[in-house]
Amino acid sequence: MNLSKKVQLFPSIKAIDALWSVSHLCTDLWNGSLEERTYKRGSKANIYSQKKSLVTIKEYLPEFKQPSSQVLQNVIFSLDRSFSSFFAKRKKGDFLANPPKFKSKKYFFTQEYSQYNTSFIVENNVLKIAYGKSKKDWIEIPLPQEVAFINNFKTVKILYDDAKGKYYAAFSYEFEEVSYLPNENTMYFDPGSKNALTGINHKGEFYNYDISHLRETNMQTYLHIDNLKAQLSKKKKGSSRYKRINRKIKQGFSKINTRTKMVLSKISNKIIADHPNINQFKIGNWTTPQTISKTGLKIKDKRINRAMQNNNPLSKLINIFSYKAKMVGKEVSKFDERGTTKTCSMCGKKLKEALSPSQRVFKCRDIKKCKFEYSRDHQSCLNFVKNFESALWQSLVGKLPTRTKRVQVNVFSCKTQSNIVHFKMHGNLLP
Length: 431
Description:
By secondary structure, this protein is α+β, with helices and mostly antiparallel strands. It has nine helices and 16 strands. The chain has two domains: 173 residues, no CATH class; 237 residues, no CATH class. The longest helix has 35 residues. It is elongated and about 80 Å long.
């Protein structure tokens, strides 16, 4: 499997000049290719024709011979991926998606060097990037010691954080994971907008992995960013105060991103540590576009979408958990969970309408015979067991659990906190 490692760089002035020179050429190529695909009538430009045109561009504009050919090709590939993503979202009904836009030269263009020995090499802990006519002209940047353990390099991306004024290298490398061996123990998770992951293991025990503390802290940062944006709108563009506020806004988003990755990695490690004997984790196929608000009121939609999408990094948690599980020989897969939230696990009757996110208790619509009431997320887990683990379901009938182990991560100390939470149950306990 491929992993990534991001490290800070300390390039020389000569290296910085060369990197920015490549950045400007990449920006020119992006804008020219975008114009050709968007605004020229009768143009049949695509990824293949634009890739071939690089030879002609180098003949008429010799400065394009300086950077690596792979870097220029990756600009074309990136533009094509942006168009493909845009059309795919529009096809699925997401009309808020925007097409690729022109880029400004004042921002650093992220450069991707995609082949070791051809476009970049690492020798004696020094990164050498293809530039100029021969290897003598290549850009050389010293690397920190934390990269010394990596041997199988695949690609490297050179980035610049405008808010911090720092350069970074993001390496991708090959990691030999532990081989996956399936066993009889499986854990099922119900992803949700209120509780991140609620699961039931092979013993019938409930676990709840909560990121509400992360979401609350991120929301405070989002509100602080909103206040800064309000101040920014009153300042003259380009002034020193405008630049200072704009830098604080970027730093706020950077804090949210770093904090989120740190907490989600901690939660993922905790899930694996809590269940050493489980090799299969199955998660309901929850997707972000399902939660897009379309009330018709712009302000209300913005508030709901921020709470449900921007500030609910559930997809990111599942992705991090998946690759961490794969490293230790475990498998994470998705399954169809449609209808499990509104289906009674006892009598099998479905509610006519879906439960709202604020309704945390499931109540069966058969109020005469069944009258089953149970915690909403845990009731979904019971349906998973009923559908896929018949032996476990038979052992739970008549003595359903009424408690769950809740796990949280403190955002500031990054330490996990666990406690037992009890919930009420009512009605018929026999299907």
